[in-house]
Sequence to fold (328 residues):
Amino acid sequence: MTGLVAAERGIGEIAIADALPEFVVVVFAAVTHLADPWFLFGLLAVGYWFASDRFAAAPRRAGATAIAAVTCAYAATALGKAWFAVPRPPGAVGPADVPTWLPGLLSAWYEAQVLSDGFGFPSGHATGGAAAYLALALVYDRAWTVRRRLLAAVALALAVAASRVVIEVHYLVDVLAGLAVGSGVVLGALWLAGDPRIRRSAVSESAGDPTRSLDPTLPFLLAAVVSTGALAVAVANGHTGEVVEAGIGIATGAGGAIGWRLVDADEPAVPVRIAVPALAVAGGLWVGAYALSGSVWVTLAATTAAVVAVVALPALPERIEALSSARS
Fold:
């Protein structure tokens, strides 16, 4: 199946990127952070924990569904990369052409952005960016207007996709495929979650407030299933890096489904005094999952625990209050 996507699949975009001023490339190296997995999941967690009914009729359902949709998108990316197994552009493997005018600290940062290993099709940043920003635009349906939300989502997704080509870690076809996959997966995830806007034939009492119908359980489980397929393909073909990514996808999907069972879905926003230490704990588990990626089982356990903590957190204040009342 590898032959379906050619290793040499550029159409001249790398030459155009080479001709751009160094300052432009540095700017796009910063733009690419808008779809780093840590940034997107942090953004999604903040929305899930803190959004009020000013943003959605059921903000906890909306936020969890957005997380589930993006988890599905990353699962699809892992499967695609393991399946097609085609390389990135030659410039992505180095050495990096770092602008001489950048100070030392920024030079190290820039080099980290423009050098990437692993496979190149589809672009994970383009997929994740399209999925995250489209999901946010659709689930938080009380913010702004539909037109403004969708324009913002498209602008951010396109900026991220362009950045991956400008810094020469992806070909144009990689990011176009990522944009298509990310957008399609979000619509499919919302359909699974019961969004009446996507299930046009469905008759729902909450049609005026579509987020009241959302249940992210099936999208989370789908992400785990697709990631299991990615794991099988990666193991069969000896793609070690993709084995780790697929394992994290399984744990994220399973952890999200488990965590969602622990909440009532109508909790208020999480108090900052609880969210801050919870974020530190979840972040530590995520870092540990990647740092100990040599052991798949440790990675699975750490990731599952982190995602359960993130998704179940809205239920924690009520349980703490109940325990305090019981003791008193």
The chain has a mean pLDDT of 91. The chain has one domain: 19-106+116-327.
